[in-house]
């Protein structure tokens, strides 16, 4: 699949308006950024507003490094204030909001500026100050962005928690971070159901904690909302008495800005700490060059605010670039399968950023549905979260926009605070399934277990050899775990934990976590390639392949499959799918077993958690951390499905 993947240049209609317009320009700028990264990041810094900027640009090495030490800037000022000071952008729409039930709101940059300053004064009135931590348990709402920008304005470290997490998962994050306040909505909506959030907060706060205040947004005024006197405060009441003027605080570039938890394979979730100024510096650069984002764009990133992608490419990167952004609450295919297309058509979105799961959902609904809507304004489709299989890639290019959209399949992690691998949409050619090329100032390599670079075309460990602004600075409260997790495997480099291949054209193909590359009788097989073969079958909606230890072969592949409602899961279908993988890849890749399941364990971003599937087939239960699950209720059903499939 990798060797045969074609190079597809971006269309001239797109290239002419891109920040970079040809491959030679990318190569020259990339080589210059590697030779002198300080000069590159200084150039990016020149485009931002600083309250004090000095030298040097970079000090230290992994894991102890800084960018622009001693310099001061404010993230909120760069995302909001500087657009308000520009007469061409102050009255343009910053945020369009729409809910699955049809409710809509609009906020200009000038209005956003006023709301953010008011809530910053609310935070001050609650006694919160620079360095304090707050937990934010809210969905994709305009008020959520107001809350987060106000925190960034004051240097208050926020921790967003996916508004679908259980009380136990929320409590873990509140207590671990020492949060002094919780900011929440009273409820959210998904697939027509009103989901209570305030009750979950109350359950999470049973027992010892440091929370002094809970600020509650009554997003659904008619929903009963329990309020604890003396602790709980109404968002709108507080805002009605707040002054609309609050200067941005000068913050050191390397001060902590945000905290986001990512699930570990076992034990407690890891609280990843990002520096506010470094996060701004890097995410602005990623968003500008990988999304070609500008004030003229209408842009929709479907990620939930509980997922760091939304902070990278919307809250910070997107607003810093001055774009108009869509915020959406609810399911993308409710109350009808064309709901996402309806939103794209209404706002004439020209750049869409979503997860492979969402694009595959569109593909399963078919081209005929997509063609019922005017999508001719779509120019760029961006994907992140897990490998985008070539079949979905080809469908997206053929069926969305005018049939020649640019597709940018990216790779990044919570710890990288951005996407070190991606295409430069107007400059570099695309390859279906590839994660593109390294970003400016990032030295990526693929090495063996001894840290030696492997030849192109051979799989190995993906590492990053130099520091960059958005690299995580710590694991909250556990420095030793931070160093052990990322910097001990290959000293002097960041160990991603992913396996990858670099092809002859310099494109990187991320195969998945190191554990997701299966060695069967000496054959190293990427689970992505097997999953791609399965998804290519009309019966398969989703597929995940994991390895099971085997005394004879070392490892054997086991597949988990959800089937389209028009098909019946049966031994005959399982045999057909095994035969397809054998034909597409080879007999060595034939799965030992195919488990038909009704749902997959997924993160809030839609990524299938394959580690849990491995635990189920090896131990009969999930033993590790489950707080990253979007829906923990599916686990019992999944174990039952696997048991029934194994006995059939």
Question: How would you describe what is shown here?
Answer:
- This protein is α/β, with parallel strands linked by helices.
- The chain has a domain at 521-647: 2-Layer Sandwich (GMP Synthetase, Chain A, domain 3), CATH 3.30.300.
- The chain contains 20 helices and 33 strands.
- The strands form ten sheets. Strands 5-4-17-16-18-19-20 form a seven-stranded mixed β-sheet, sandwiched between helices.
- Strand 9 (187-190) and strand 10 form a beta hairpin.
- Helix 4 packs across helix 5 (109-125), helix 4 (75-84) packs across helix 6 (142-154) and helix 7 packs across helix 8.
- The longest helix is centred in the N-terminal third of the chain and has 17 residues, at 109-125.
- The protein starts with 11 loop residues before the first helix and ends with a helix.
- The mean pLDDT is 92.
Outline of this structure?
It is built from 20 helices and 33 strands.
Name a few traits of the molecule:
24% strand; five-stranded parallel sheet; 32% helix; GMP Synthetase, Chain A, domain 3; 20 helices; alpha/beta
In the CATH hierarchy, what is the superfamily of the domain at 521-647? ANL, C-terminal domain
Mean pLDDT: 92
Biggest beta-sheet profile: 7 strands, mixed
Task: Assign an overall shape.
Answer: globular
Q: Count of helical segments?
A: 20
Q: Per CATH, which architecture of the domain at 521-647? A: 2-Layer Sandwich
Termini separation (Å)? 33 Å
CATH class of the domain at 521-647: Alpha Beta
Structural class: alpha/beta
Q: How much helix is in the residues?
A: 25-40%
Strand tally, please?
33
Q: Can you tell me the residue ranges where pLDDT is under 50 for at least 5 consecutive residues?
A: none
- What percentage of the residues does DSSP assign to strands (E)? 15-25%
What's the alpha carbon Rg, rounded to whole Å?
24 Å
The third-level CATH topology of the domain at 521-647 is GMP Synthetase, Chain A, domain 3
